[in-house]
């Protein structure tokens, strides 16, 4: 019985040692596969990043174009008011147009950027676009009390 247990233990040890040792060529092959997998993951992440970038840029360009249309409508709209009120309104419209053009220029400048800078830019740009949208909504309000 002891001999059987000793043989079993020795067999298990031999199998364990044989399975744990890799030749150099096996290690190289495994490393090559790991590198290929990592490259595939990197390529996939890069494609996803470019798609996100493209989608966001298209969305923001659409918003900018909508703002341009609103500005054109406001400029064409005739209002009955005092000359100073009309002048103030036209100044606010000009300011909105300037800010909208600046946003478009900023978006154009951010064509080639890394992912870290893009996330920061996107956060700031979204905030600025939100403020610009609020300014469009506020232009019709009479702030004179």
What can you tell me about this protein's structure?
By secondary structure, this protein is mainly α. The protein has a domain at 38-138. It has 4 helices and no strands. The model has no long low-confidence stretch (mean pLDDT 80).
Coarse shape: rod-shaped
Q: How big a fraction of the residues is strand?
A: under 5%
Rg is 32 Å
Helix content: over 70%
What class, by secondary structure content?
A: mainly alpha
Order of helices and strands: HHHH
Amino- and carboxy-terminal Cα gap? 104 Å
Number of helices: 4
Number of strands: 0
**Biggest beta-sheet profile:** none
Average pLDDT taken over every residue:
80
Unreliable stretches covering 5 or more consecutive residues: none
Keywords, please?
145 residues, mainly alpha, 4 helices
Secondary-structure blueprint of this entry?
Layout: H1 2-20, H2 24-76, H3 83-109, H4 115-138
Task: Give a summary of the structure in a few sentences.
This protein has helices at residues 2-20, 24-76, 83-109, 115-138. It has 145 residues and is mainly α.
């Amino acid at each position: 019985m002891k001999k059987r247990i000793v043989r079993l233990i020795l067999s298990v040890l031999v199998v364990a040692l044989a399975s744990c040792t890799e030749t150099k060529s096996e290690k190289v092959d495994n490393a090559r596969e790991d590198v290929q997998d990592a490259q595939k993951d990197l390529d996939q992440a890069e494609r996803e990043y470019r798609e996100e970038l493209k989608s966001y840029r298209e969305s923001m360009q659409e918003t900018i174009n909508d703002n341009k249309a609103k500005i054109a409508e406001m400029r064409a709209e005739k209002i009955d008011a005092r000359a100073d009120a009309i002048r103030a309104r036209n100044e606010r419209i000009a300011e909105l147009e300037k800010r909208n053009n600046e946003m478009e220029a900023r978006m154009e400048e951010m064509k080639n950027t890394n992912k870290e800078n893009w996330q920061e830019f996107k956060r700031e740009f979204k905030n600025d676009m939100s403020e610009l949208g609020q300014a469009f909504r506020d232009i019709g309000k009479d702030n004179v009390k």
